[in-house]
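PROTEIN–LIGAND DATA SHEET

This sheet pairs a single protein chain with one bound small molecule, S-adenosylmethionine, given as SMILES. Inputs appear in the order they were entered. The predicted three-dimensional arrangement of chain and ligand is reported afterwards as a token string under its own label.
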Amino acid sequence: MHVEPSAADCDTLIENGYQATASTIEEYQPATQADAIVALNSYAQPTKEVLSTVLKPGGKIITNNWTKWAADVVAIEGVRLEAVLLPSYMNDEAVLVEGSDIPPDASGIDLTYTKVDRSGQVSAGSADDPDSFPMEMAYFPDALFVFTFDSTI
Ligand SMILES: C[S@@+](CC[C@H](N)C(=O)[O-])C[C@H]1O[C@@H](n2cnc3c(N)ncnc32)[C@H](O)[C@@H]1O
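PREDICTION REPORTED AS:
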């Protein structure tokens, strides 16, 4: 089942024989909970309530980290990071790293500061410089993260 807010996109999928529901994941109430969900570059907000509604106990979540899904999902109680395909799922030499071999910051977000001066010159900034602005970027935005979620915890 494909769930997303765009009714036009869902209509196109349905016309081509796929199952789709026009809804946000936050409002979606499935008839049957899924074994797994896949969220790539989604702007939805993953929460314990959302995962409990859409996933069977012990269900799997597969996601990347461009929109911070991996960083947000890893912080949810009951979630366990099982494996990560590093450094990117588009890399022919990507490696599946599991369990204790997963780097501690694999799903982390890097915070850097950038400064643009009056001539448009871009340089490194800092947290205490009022002319700097913060930029957040996942260490591995295109890694593929595999989580399990135990909603009873
Ligand atoms: C940047 S697109 C990514 C599409 C595709 N997965 C890809 O990687 O090319 C973001 C997708 O998330 C969907 N989306 C945004 N907010 C959502 C929400 N609250 N619940 C479910 N899907 C959402 C959008 O409709 C869109 O299809």
